[in-house]
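Class, carefully examine what follows:
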Amino acid sequence: MKKRLLRWGKAIDFCQKKQREIVKLQKMVKQFLILGENGPFLEQENISLEEAKEIYEIEIEKIVEYMKKEMEEYSKMERYIERLEYDEQIFLKMRYKEEYQYDYIALKMHKSRAKCFRDHDMILDKLIMMCKEEKIAA
């Protein structure tokens, strides 16, 4: 569950990075088409202009597909988290999205550090139960 929460917390940043990768690849395709047959690696690997363009497009499609899967997982976790109490939601957002340490969270939420650890364990247990209930219902 902790791994899923870590992925949930970093999903937006991850997808933004992947979006920048897509933009870079699209720029490379445009530059490649401008260079035409004088492309730097065409001579070395006997690749036609169309094949090279297809390679870039396939790579872009893979990234988009991976981003879709990542966002599906993000929305699934978001639905679970919405079912938690408000304080628990805030705790998870501080811990996994903002990546605050327990000391800072304890200070902000006016709790002891030990209470934060206990709350974290309790929240994880709740999320695990929600996942099991959904799998049983499905």
The CA atoms of residues 9 and 96 lie 5 Å apart. Residues 85-138 form one domain. The chain has a mean pLDDT of 84. Residues 2-35 form the longest helix (34 residues).
